Amino acid sequence: MAPHKFAIGQLVDFDTNSKISMKVNGPFEIVRVLPADDVPARAYRIKSRTEPFERVVKEYELVAVAVAAG
How far is residue 2's CA from residue 46's CA, in Å, rounded to a whole number? Predict the structure, then answer.
């Protein structure tokens, strides 16, 4: 089985091709990697600093956010 694309603590955002209609601006932090019963539909729990709740999203809906060096 291939590894997950994202890791806990990594910053991500919704892919611009995502069909999520009610999304807030990221970035979001990966809080939990959910069990992968179906590889194409791997899922994560993500959290934005601007929201009091976590979201569950599919791997294909996310892209990594580049972290500025400094």
Answer: 21
